[in-house]
Amino acid sequence: MRITGGREARRLLKVPKGLAVRPTPDLVKQALFNSLGPRVQSARVLELFAGTGALSLECLSRGAKSAICVEKSARHAEVIRQNATAAGFEADVLQVRTQDVFAAIGQLAEGCERFDLILADPPYGEKNIGRRSTSFAQQLLDDERLPKLLEPEGLLILGHTRRDTLDIPPFWREKKLLKHGDSLVRFFSVLN
User: What's the pLDDT tens digit per position in 125-163?
Assistant: First the structure.
């Protein structure tokens, strides 16, 4: 796995051993960042279910102002820190929070934090034909605190598997959908 664009393009990133992390494939990352274009420059970024932190590091490489990675696993959070150090990013531009995503959302909302981009590629849910999804992707969409973390023109970018059919709550407006194999990447803004 590597950073695909910006000042650190082609830098290889460490990935934790085992099957607990499913990094976003490079082709999906390239399509995502081609779609975002200059929106990344000077952006404040929040990455949920950060895993390797690859999406935040990609944003920083492409000119984002700062990033916060939320990752529950202490081992994975340490890999994010190692990757950031290896890429030469200053400690003040990348914050790694080792905690549950939903606890972090609550704390960030209470602190009135706002982000230009919220990126989430959580562990995939099960196939849910004939019933409502219980996946992390659905839980994120359902969390009414999440829209409060976005700047007025901000975007939530959510990855999930095609077999996980999501219900979109009325406070989200879907702006774009990228399809790559079994992966979907959806772009949402807050409905005003």
Answer: 777 777 889 999 999 999 999 999 999 999 999 999 888
Contacts of 69 (CB under 8 A, 6+ apart): 47, 50, 53, 56, 77, 80, 94, 95, 96, 97
Check residues 35 and 1 and name the one with the higher pLDDT: 35
SS (H, E, C) the chain: CECCCCCCCCCECCCCCCCCCCCCCHHHHHHHHHHHHHHHCCCEEEEECCCCCHHHHHHHHCCCCEEEEECCCHHHHHHHHHHHHHCCCCCCCEEEECCCHHHHHHHHHHCCCCEEEEEECCCCCCCCCCCCCCCHHHHHHHCCCHHHHEEEEEEEEEEEECCCCCCCCCCEEEEEEEEECCEEEEEEEECC
Query: For 65, phi and psi rounded to 5 degrees?
Result: -75, -45
The closest of 110, 119, 114 to 185, measured between CA atoms, is: 119
CA distance 77 to 70: 8
Residue 138, number of CB atoms within 10 A of its CB: 22
**Residue 12 pLDDT grade (very low, low, confident, very high; cuts 50, 70, 90):** low
